[in-house]
Write a structure and sequence with these properties.
The complex is a heterodimer of chains A (225) and B (229). Chain A is mainly alpha-helical. Chain A has helices spanning 15-97, 102-127, 138-195, 199-224. Chain A starts with 14 loop residues before the first helix and ends with a helix. The relative contact order of chain A is 0.15. Chain B contains 8 helices and no strands. The relative contact order of chain B is 0.15. Chains A and B meet through helix 1, helix 2 and helix 3 of A and helix 2, helix 3, helix 5 and helix 7 of B.
Chain lengths: 225, 229
């Protein structure tokens, strides 16, 4: 009697198969984490770079604006002082030259000196930073009020953002390296799955596990960098 | 060998563990789909963030250029002429005031000087917005702050530029992208659980349930980040 027993033969998972399944699952997790790390680092790097560019643009706008305003004040004060000095110089020159119109020179020099004193006061007022009652928009007012100090702080902040961008760039590069190593591990896992529980399969599984471990270590270093 | 010996020496059969389940395959499929969808959504959000930050940079450059030019125009182009006019005006007033205290030729010469300055003032006024407009007259001198405010308001759209707004929009999109990415990074845990469910059949059901919970949690986290952030 020849009995054909037809059964739904399902091969029981071996230790090799179970280990392979677990490691493939771990590979997926490490891939997800590395992808997150790379994307997060590259977005933050981009943000820091754009922010540093924005800070540089702001500083380069503030410096000439405050310079225009302060330069005018300085020049106006200088002109007022010259005006004052001219009055005195006129008097000295007239007395030394012993002019016939000395009375006129004296009167002219005194009125010129008085005009110079008023002009100095005018120069201080016109050269001063505008106040809140000038009707200026808040940003322009803040630019003129803060002066060169704010520009220097912006430059410092800009340098900090550049440093931050470099840190994120390092992290992103390490994450990409981790993904590259992980890709090799994935290929070796695939090969191990194809050849199954044979010597080449076990060797491939071992190498793949090593690459997976290296990839995970690189990923951790990417986060901690 | 007789038939009974053939029957007793039946070939070895592998262990039959019953029909295979589609559960792990379904879980793995869903895990892949959810991860792909979340990564895709995070990419879109990252692109939005990048666009917003670029716009913030462009607006910062535009705003800075507008302020620099307006301040330069008032303080480098208009203000020196206005100050010169203030000097001429003050000199004329002082000469005329001093002339009141003098007599004869000295008085006449001082008045002539004052007259010269007044004629010059008329010439300067014709060529200066600040000198000719009474709104900029100060107690002594001219109000450059008010003039700068008026010059700025000639281009109100440039005054209204606020780069912090697109910066905030970009930062918000960036936060959403980070949270969505985090949820996407959790989805592969369901992949692991599905893989284990395929090979550990006695624990298949709890593993599948755990995988479904993880996937559901990832989706809920992503949806919450869209709504809350």
């Amino acid at each position: 009697m020849d009995l054909d027993i037809e059964t739904a033969v399902v091969e029981a998972p071996t230790r090799f198969t179970k280990l392979l399944a677990a490691l493939v699952g771990m590979t997926a997790i490490v891939a997800g984490l590395l992808a997150f790390a790379e994307n997060h680092a590259s977005r933050n790097e981009e943000r820091s770079l754009l922010l540093s560019a924005r800070l540089a643009a702001e500083a380069s706008g503030r410096i000439p604006a405050t310079q225009s305003q302060s330069s005018f004040g300085l020049r106006a004060a200088q002109e007022a002082i010259i005006q004052q000095a001219r009055g005195t110089a006129r008097l000295l020159a007239a007395s030394e030259a012993d002019l016939a119109d000395f009375d006129y020179s004296l009167a002219l020099s005194e009125s010129a000196t008085a005009a110079g004193e008023r002009l100095l006061s005018i120069a201080e007022r016109m050269g001063a930073v505008p106040g809140p009652d000038s009707g200026l928009d808040p940003y322009t007012l803040e630019v003129l009020t803060s002066g060169h100090t704010a520009a220097a702080e912006l430059v410092q902040e800009q340098n900090a953002e550049v440093d931050r961008a470099e840190t994120y760039s390092r992290r992103g590069n390490r994450a990409i390296l981790g993904l590259s190593v992980l890709a090799v591990a994935a290929v070796l896992f695939g090969f191990a799955g194809a050849v199954r529980d044979t010597r080449p399969g076990v060797a491939a599984l071992g190498m793949a596990t090593l690459f997976l471990t290296v990839s995970a270590v690189i990923g951790v270093s990417a986060v901690l960098a | 060998m007789g038939e009974s010996e053939q029957w007793q020496q039946a070939p070895e059969q592998p262990v039959v563990e019953g029909p295979d389940s589609l559960g792990p395959a379904i879980l793995l499929t869903f895990a892949a789909v959810v991860a792909a969808a979340l990564f895709g959504r995070a990419s879109l959000l990252s692109a939005d963030a990048s666009d917003a930050w670029q716009q913030a940079l462009r607006q910062e450059i535009k705003r800075g250029a507008a302020v620099t030019e307006d301040v330069r125009y008032v303080y480098s182009d208009e203000a020196p002429l206005a100050f010169a006019g203030a000097g001429v005006q003050v000199r004329a007033e002082e000469h005329r005031a001093r002339a009141q205290q003098e007599s004869g030729r000295t008085r006449d010469l001082l008045l002539a000087e004052a007259g010269t300055d007044e004629v010059l003032m008329e010439t300067l006024t014709a060529g200066s917005q600040i000198l000719s407009d009474e709104r900029y007259q100060d107690e002594d001198g001219f109000d450059l702050g008010r003039r700068l405010a008026d010059v700025r308001q000639e281009n109100p759209d440039l005054v209204d530029i606020d780069p912090d707004q697109p910066q905030a929009v970009g930062d918000r999109a960036h936060r959403k992208a980070s949270t969505t990415l985090g949820a996407a990074a959790v989805a592969p845990v369901a992949f692991l659980l599905g893989s284990l469910a395929q090979v550990f059949r006695r624990r298949r059901t709890p593993l599948l349930i755990a995988g479904a919970v993880v996937l559901g949690g990832a989706v809920v986290a992503a949806v919450l980040s869209e709504v809350v952030l």
